[in-house]
Each structure stands twice: as structure tokens, then as C-alpha cells.
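Standup notes
- DV: blocked on the single-chain target, sequence here:
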Amino acid sequence: MSGKETVILLSRILTQESVKGNNQRYIDIILQEEIPVLCINHESQKKRLMPFKVLFDNHEDFWHKKGSWAYYFTGEGYKKLKGKLFLKQNNFEKPEPSPEEKKENEIIEKHGVEVGYGSEYQTFAEMPNEKKIEWLNNDKKRLNDILSQKYKNDAEVTEALVETTKDAAYINHATLEEALFLADDEAKKLTQDLVDTTHDMIRASALLISENIFSNELMNTLVEKSNGTIIQHMTRVYLNGIAFLSYYNNLVSTSSAIQKLRIKFASEYRKFYHELLPHLDIDDVVLERVFYGGMRAIPTDLYFKWAVGFLIHDIGKAGAVEYHEGEASYDRKIVIDHVKQGYKSIMTKTNYPMEASLITGYHHEYYGDADGYGYFRAYLAQYKKQNPDAKQDYCITYELEPILDYQAMAYFPAKVLEIIDIYDSVTDPHRVYRKSMTPEEALTMMKEQFVVKHHKIDSILFDIFAMYIREKEKVNKKR
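- DV (later): unblocked, structure below
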């Protein structure tokens, strides 16, 4: 063993809080894969590799024994354990599946897509960190090479966008899974190159998407290029999210859209927003109360930060959590946990901008509706305990300060993501428990259930999103 080789204390792995006392699945993998244990005597400095089974058969809790010997995994052994562990998780391994799960697996197999992250994830889960960064750099170069072309081939652009986005989602998830087992400072060192390279790659990707925001071919190609339902969702949401932000910017920058909204605000929107801000006089509920600082285009620096958040928004989702609305398999606690895990991991284990963290943690808030969940409502409840007379006078903010100071009810990119997340879920071609909706069916349902009946998503942003989808469908029918 090289003196510089990474070693990880065995007791640290088998008593991790994240293991929650369930050591058996770890032990089963260690025994099955015959991962050896590095034994170091801290008095004599002797080192030797021993089979885990020998030590385990002698004492089932040997890593806790007091004495001069300490027990470690080598870096190679640890990576093997983590790779096998997450392969098992992401393959959705379970005991005998329920009838509902059997039906789900049959339908998914028929459609040619795998649950969770798909078997392709294993390649990235077991890849050394340096190789992951090299992979992303190659993707970045691929995108920049296409950007530099005066005349671009649509098929080449589409394939590059889908494949590089998918790679970035896989690599970010795999790296963050590894980082969760490290101290915060150590994790941030591990992920720093990932953060920088992902940001550079996304900048190139977003620029290409903005050149063709109405392409349905992107989504069709995605289905062919990815075999995991979660990774398909993350990729679709990212691609649609960036396209919509570009559409939104074009709309508010180059047309009279804002003035038109202001003219019809009282008749079409005031009632909706007054119900969100009932402490205000109804005449004070104007467009400038909906959008803190007024409705406007998104600055370039925020545009790219939000793009990162869109890509990694479900980074905390475990392989066993699906997007389909099957009541029999729905576990609200597990679903909520993915938001918490994603938010915590990005905040504490990486140097991604806070904007990306808030998108991850706040994209299911639903304006405080009981069906929503996330960190913001918990923080707001604490704040109101200390400031019982505090009121939120605005609905949406583009900047961080008004959401962090509890002046606004929601963060703009998180409200956008809520809409795109719901739309993608109900139009997903691999939806299991219910038939996939057409774009128009989805828009009608969302208007009725998420705007009119319940004030979950934003009314103005939804109407702009509906314009985007309908224009997109019209353009693609002509092609």
C-alpha cells in the first residue's frame, strides 16, 4: 500500500448516521464482494490486509473492539462498496414486489425504460473523481465546438444536448453520494472541480438551448438516449426549464407583454393574488406586489445559476422514488426526504451557488398549500414565532434577499420549476399508473387543479408557460 493511499475508518462507515443502524446490507455486500480490511497497529505500526469474513466470524462487532488495532477500508475497497451499494439501491431491489409494483415493472419493461437511475448509472458511480471531471470537460468541449460553428446541424445539436445533460446529472449525483460520507470541508474540496466544470458545461448547454427553444426533438431523442426514469425526468426538466426561461426573457424584453398584463391584471389576476396576500387592501394588489421590484427579464448571471439549479433539482432523490402518481406506492415521507437530502447536500457538501440550493429545497412549496413541502415553510414558521406580526407583502422575488428576509412568499426559479415539474410528471411518456396526458390535457388539468381550485402554482407564470407550450406545439406541427 502506498503511504499516500486514502483509507477510511471502518467504524466510521458502519456507524454512519445515514446508515440508520442498518449495517446488514453493508456487511452483506462486503462479504459478497470479499472486500478486505486494512488492519493497522498504532503501537507497532504494523499493517496487514485481512479478509473481512475472518474478522467478522471471530467477532461480529470487531471494528468496535478496544485495543491497539484499528480497521480501515482502502480507497479502492470503499469505492467498490459504495458502487455496489448504490447499484443495488438504484436497481430498486426489493423483496417480492407487490401486484402494483409488478404491473409497474411490466409496463416499464414494455416501454424499454428502467426505474430509478437505470443500469447506466453504475458506470459513473464506480468512476474515479478525476475521470468524472475529465468526462464533463470533454462534454463541455463538445458543446463549445458546436457553439463555434456558424451553421449547426440540428440533429448533432440535439444529440449533444441530451447526452451531455444526462452525463452531468449522473456525475453530479454519483459525486454527491460519495461526498455525503465526508466532512463538509473535505466534501467541498472533492466537489469543487465538479461545481466549476458543471457550471461551464451548463453555460454552453444553455446557450445552445436558447437558440432553439421550441424543439420537441430534444425530448424525443432523450427517450432514446436514457434508460432511467429519474435521469430522464431530471434531463427533461432541465431542457424544458432553460427553454422556458429563454422564452420568458424574449417575451418580457421584446414585446409589450408586461403592459398587457398590467392592463388586464385587475380583471384576471387580482383576486388570485389578493387571496395570497389578504392583509393588503385589494387596490394595493398590483403587478409590482406579485413580482418584487417589478416584472422584468432575468439577468445573465442569474440565468446560468438557475440553470444549474434546474439540472440538480432532484439530486437527493433515491432510486426507489418515482415520479408516477401511483397511490399504492406513494410514501409522502420518502418523497419529502428527497428535497431535504438534496438541499442539505448541496448547501453543506458543495460550493454551488445558494440560488441552486434554494431551487432544490423550495421547488415543492406550492405557496404554502398543505400539499406542498420544503424548507422555506419551516424557516418561515420559525421566523413568525419570533416576529408574530410579520407579513409577506410580495409573492415572488428574483433576488435572494427578499426570500431570505421573508418579504416574499416564493423564489422565482422555484415557482417556474414547480410548473415544469408537474407538467413533466403528467406528460411523461413512461407514466405508469395513469395514462400520459397530451400537452393540452396537462395545461387544462393544471389550470383547474393548481391555479383555480388550489393556489399552488403561480397564475401569471402558468399562463406564460401555457403560451410557451402552445407556441411550441404549433411550431413543431409545421415542421
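- Follow-up: The CA atoms of residues 108 and 297 lie 40 Å apart.
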